[in-house]
Amino acid sequence: MLTKVFIKKRTMKTKKLLFTAIATIVFIAGANAQNVNIPDANFKAALVANASVNTNMDAEIQVSEASVFNGAINVSQLNITDLTGIEEFVALDYLDCRGNYISGLDVSANIALTYLDCSGNYLPGYGGFNGGNDYVYYLDTLDVSANIAITILKCNNNGLLSLNTTGLTALTYIDCSFNSRLYFAPMWAAPVLYHSSSPLLNFSSNTALTYLNCSSNALSSLDVSENTALTYLDCSNYNWTEDEIMVEDGVTLSSLNLSANTALTYLNCIGNVLSSLDVSANTALTYLNCYSNQLTSLDVSTCSTLAFLYCFDNNLTSLNVNNGYNINMFDFQGMDGENYPAFLAYNNPNLSCIEVDDVAWSNANWANNIDATASFSLNCSGAGISDINSNAPIFYPNPTTGSIYLSAPGNITLTDLSGNLLLEEKNTNQLDISALPAGMYFLSFGENNQHTFKVIKE
User: Fold this and answer.
1) Which residues contact 146 (CB under 8 A, 6 or more apart)?
2) How far apart are CA 437 and CA 379, in angstroms?
3) pLDDT > 70 in the chain, percent
4) Beta bridge partner(s), residue 212
5) Does 176 score more than 60 pLDDT?
6) CA dihedral over 379, 384, 389, 391, signed as positive or negative
7) Per-residue pLDDT tens over the stretch 97-146
């Protein structure tokens, strides 16, 4: 009797264990077979067709497939309106969803993302504005605050109302241009990204940034003092429509401090209301486009590799391009196949003198690029005491706060207005006058001091 009871109990225990094992297997299988919810048919079709994502090549994307995928997803220009389902790709490294009609994008779960391109998510409309098509802008919200691994972000040509990049210390490249009053945009559909006296965009924590394009937004101020690695900056306000309301509303840049951006090589700040622009610290600049502002003076004499300068349509009374590099400013061919000059300074009616490296060369190459009332000189701040000719060595900057540099080594002397010798150096191309008080001095150099110029120490 005891044997039968024991056998019965053992059999019941075995059945219970077997039932538990089967239930566990069914649960695991069910979990592994759970499909990702992807309501947009175009998005789903693209993922299902991607063998790298859909590893079992069935008609669905399982959570188990999505959660381990750590490659790139490119679903650009596929008429997608909804990217729901992307949240399951928690290891995703690269996402390109540009050129669709996505109105909201949630990538908060995609914390491994290093690259995101969601640019150009708008829908062409009808009716026309200024002879073109109206646009209805779709992507108006984007939160990337959780994507701390991201290095490249492209969210341009959308209708973003705000963008928060705080804490993205790995970010090196951002293009958020054309998010306010895009070309041919009707007034009723003109989203404003930065229309505020307290800008919604703050780059102070993005200290690794090397590329920043925030052009064509209602940008009233810009602080790039913490972005010391910047090499490319486009903060232009080029308005493709004839609507000038951004200027009238005062939402254009009136000041720009670039003193900390010593690595900067490219600067485009056209179409703002800048009255001054100090690029003395930006000695690496090769491209400077600052036309259509309110500049009264511009000195690029410290930019010794500047190959492109457009400063027309300003209020310049002083322009110093005497940087020893003028002959390297070659004309170039645009995307339209037309040739364009590398230097333009016309429409500055109060500008009568432009300091250059070589007067004869400038007259031969740039005469048509300035106003008829302007002329070239080696020294606009004071005519030389002795004969000034195009064969004279080049010196810069003038005025100066410290050192004076020559284009070629030579013997240099500096005297005061009474002719007293203050400094003398032989076979050098630099003279430090930082210890001298502010005022006017005579700088002489060359064989037998045949070249003498007035120098202003500030």
Assistant:
1) 107, 108, 109, 111
2) 21
3) 77
4) 174, 233
5) yes
6) negative
7) 999 999 889 999 999 999 999 999 987 654 444 444 555 668 888 889 99
Q: How many CA atoms lie within 13 A of 178 on its CB side?
A: 19
Residue 141: CB atoms within 10 Å: 14
Compute how many other C-beta atoms are within 10 angstroms of the C-beta atom of residue 128.
Answer: 11
Report helix, strand or coil for 148: coil
389-435 per-position pLDDT tens digit: 445 567 778 788 888 887 778 888 888 866 788 888 888 888 888 88
Domain ranges within the chain, ordered by starting residue? 395-457
Structural tokens at position 311: 């400063």
Instruction: Tell me the three-class secondary structure of 16-32, residue by residue.
Output: HHHHHHHHHHHHHHHHH
Which CATH fold would you assign to the domain 395-457? Immunoglobulin-like (2.60.40)
- Residue with structure tokens 């339209």? 336
Q: For residue 290, which of 265, 317, 271, 315 has the smallest C-alpha distance? A: 271
Q: What is the pLDDT of residue 202?
A: 83
pTM summary value: 0.74
> What pLDDT is attached to residue 104?
87
Q: Which two tokens stand for residue 153?
A: 């972000």
- The amino acid at 2: L
CA 217 from centroid of its chain's CA atoms: 13
Rounded CA separation 155/65 (Å): 28
Distance of alpha carbon 393 from alpha carbon 328, whole angstroms: 17
Q: How far apart are CA 239 and CA 182, in angstroms?
A: 8
